[in-house]
Amino acid sequence: YAGIAVFPLDDPQVVAKINDLSAKGIAIITFNSHVEAVKSFCFVGQDHYKGGRTAAGLLDKIVHRPGEIAVIISSNHLSCHRDRLQGFKDKLEELAKPYKIVDVVENYDKKEDAFRITLELINEYPQLKAIYITGGGVSGLASALSLSEASKDIKVISHDLTTDAKELLEKGSLDFVIGQNPELQGNLLVKI
Q1: I need a surface site. Which of 81, 82, 105, 155 has the fewest CB within 10 A?
Q2: Residue 67 parent element (H or E)
Q3: 68 falls in which pLDDT band (50, 70, 90)?
Q4: Please, which residues have CB within 8 angstroms of residue 141's CB and are 6 or more apart in sequence?
């Protein structure tokens, strides 16, 4: 093969293998998650840091009394999710309002984990105002929120306009979903 498109983990073994293939003349294109140490031909994807900042800005528009926020992150081993979280934190800090991130929990894009985590967050933080989910699992989160009367006031912002997310957005279970146009990304990978 002449080239590989890869969604890389930010892990030393993954980086070493990708860089080894690149050194052998194989064109490497990274997509969706940019890892600085990877020697790729190019990166196809969005600016995740700005996506996180956008999420925080949207949250500020819909949360009427700033307070406790929880974050469900896909994985700390994916730079795209770390970048979203950092952008989110930076924008909240710039807003200089009494927002407080009370917990950041990984769900590995699993709806079952998002369900369990959401129930735990609701129980542990009864004053929770919002949940920001950086990746998959939104249907689990929404299911957990539907079980709790207290959760009707919890705002939810997510990424990735999947079929599940679109339905939940239309039902009002999610307040905002920031898309990333995966079809365009896939087409660009093939064209490049």
Answers
A1: 105
A2: none
A3: very high
A4: 72, 111, 114, 115, 117, 118, 131, 133, 156, 158
